[in-house]
């Protein structure tokens, strides 16, 4: 052992944090619950139940150059994204999941004592990343009835911070559709956010399921807007970690200085490029998931103890009435059906159910009906 305690060298901010708790892996759940992996109904992480197009799997199997470092600039992928979405290639950043880009933005903008604005309930990583870099999180909760934004309160929090003791809010995060509520950010709300003196980060991880246009093209019109996207949901590549974003020109210039080389592995690049080349197959799966979402929501609305929230994403948040949400989660779990349970103040008594295949939707609805 050393003559001193090396843990004293650690950044004290790290010591104060709590570790992120991801969903359990399938093999562990299989052992714990006594079900084969293929018999589990995994509806707890908003994954695409159909996986990537077969062409993606074939491309991964036939690629022969995994021993060579990947293109650090992700050139072909960015070219294909630009052509598909009608944005300049020069404004596209690629990361190992959109989570990496979220973390990059925190690293690039936040110093200890800086502030971000978060609108809970929402994706945990916005506040987690801010805390990681010693920043303060200003929370403006969503309205409890429909989880819409309290835009007036957001404006007040940002504008008051310009003259208050806490310092200005540097970044405003808004997921659209929002996770875990499925709420859509309206055009009017978006415009009011963009009028604020802060960087606005729109997280469009679930945009393909919303039936609404992406706002990636708006970045060219607003130099305080960043829009993030992912291959995890619609393309079914959650396990390969590939995300992208559209940044204004001035920020892309700084991003290239900051970005780690070879940050995206070759398998993810092969899969992502192939998925874009077969986008019609992706759209067919998205349409199938959207139909499944309608089936799921309608079925949940018929369960007496559930109050499903309207959703523009591939999941449905439900308020549990007259019984314990934890008991509902555990009852499903005993049958090999995995859903997300929340015990946070703004989501107390809620479960979130991802859209599965048609047979999985039938199985979860049947299990819930048997709890009546």
List strands and helices in order, with pairings.
Blueprint: H1 12-15, H2 26-33, E1 41-43, H3 54-62, H4 75-85, E2 92-95, H5 98-109, E3 115-118, H6 125-132, E4 136-139, H7 151-161, E5 169-175, H8 187-194, E6 199-203, E7 225-230, E8 243-246, H9 249-258, H10 266-277, H11 279-301, E9 306-308, E10 315-320, H12 325-334, E11 337-342, E12 350-354, H13 358-369
Parallel strand pairs: 1-11, 3-4, 3-5, 5-6, 6-7
Antiparallel strand pairs: 2-8, 7-8, 9-10, 10-12, 11-12
Stated plainly, the CATH topology of the largest domain is called: Aspartate Aminotransferase, domain 2
Secondary structural class: alpha/beta
* Element order: H for helix, E for strand: HHEHHEHEHEHEHEEEHHHEEHEEH
Number of contiguous helices:
13
> What Rg is obtained from the alpha carbons, in whole angstroms?
21 Å
On the 0-100 scale, what is the average pLDDT? 95
Number of domains: 2
Largest sheet features: 7 strands, mixed
Would you mind describing this structure in some detail?
By secondary structure, the chain is α/β, with parallel strands linked by helices. It is built from 13 helices and 12 strands. Strands 2-8-7-6-5-3-4 form a 7-stranded mixed β-sheet, sandwiched between helices. Helix 8 links the parallel strand 5 and strand 6. Helix 3 crosses helix 10, helix 5 runs parallel beside helix 6 and helix 11 runs parallel beside helix 13.
